[in-house]
# Entry
Amino acid sequence: MDNFVDEKIPLTMPFKLTGRNLFLLLGLGLGIVAIGLDVAAGRLLNGPASLFMPLAVCAVVASVLGYAVVPLLQQLKAGQVIREDGPQAHLKKAGTPTMGGVFFVPAGVAVALLWSRFNSDVVAVSALTLAYGFIGWIDDWQILRLKSNKGISPRMKLALQVGFAALFCLWLMFREPGISTSIALPFGWVLPLGFLFWPLAGFVLVAESNATNITDGVDGLMGGLGAIALLGLGASVASTSPELMIFCACTSGSCLGFLAHNRNPATVFMGDTGALALGGALGAVALLTNSLWVLLIISGIFFIETLSVIAQVGYYKATKGPDGIGKRLLRMAPLHHHLELCGWLETQVVGIFYITNAVLVLMILMLTSNS
# Structure
């Protein structure tokens, strides 16, 4: 979907954070939460069942890999093409290498597979994650090849997403022929869907991956939000699906390791390669653990970002006059660009979004612990 830009109105925020400080605070916060949950569950020193250990290991692995891969991407001239109609501050980022997902996503997946001893659920979720990452890589490569911000056609991208989602749903049917097609809700409520469960499952995978892709537009934003959301989802399913908890912890850790290079000012962007993969990972874990309502809450930022684009485009089309020009709800969509054009610094946008997502995750952990 196209972004729509209006003039900038400066706005002074009450605080200022550097990208480095945000990264350190996020890493420290997630580490403390993971250790606290492990201590409460009596699993801190139990490697195969720990939340903190795979988080820490993958953070180190992805960070170290970045020091080798980022210079390689620079040598390959895999520089990001910046939209000219976007925030003017982003123009200086032109040439920053993209496709960072090629190192941090496989790092998290590989460690998760080894740590879980190739558990079948982890294998399936890993396959979908890598498949969606592959779609993103095709899109990123096309952008770099054509030196344009337009990759593969939206129709082709959607067809590939739907195709891989259908394959995942078929595997889920055969894995568990008697699988419940009801959705678990808070407070013990259940929503029976029958056959409608499967179209919803496909929609969740496609929508989540597109939502995370839309959110990826500011240094450190999607990497940090992905780390928070994945750790929260992993913690919420720890008691029922310890192997998928490990997968979530590993992927969350790899996001943290990526942030060592992606924090403001970023030396690499994740690109569609990383953003689509993270959405696929979140959706697949939620479907396997029947925790779609949990996914909805921890994806609150992604949901709002997506709604901002839909509302912007819809309102623009609905208010078109005879001259073919419509009105805009936001100065630019998605929401993070609107806030930038209102005068927010990138680090302020990222900091507020981190805090908001962390609050949503903590709320989910309190609800699931009491259910």
Summary: The CA atoms of residues 165 and 202 lie 5 Å apart.
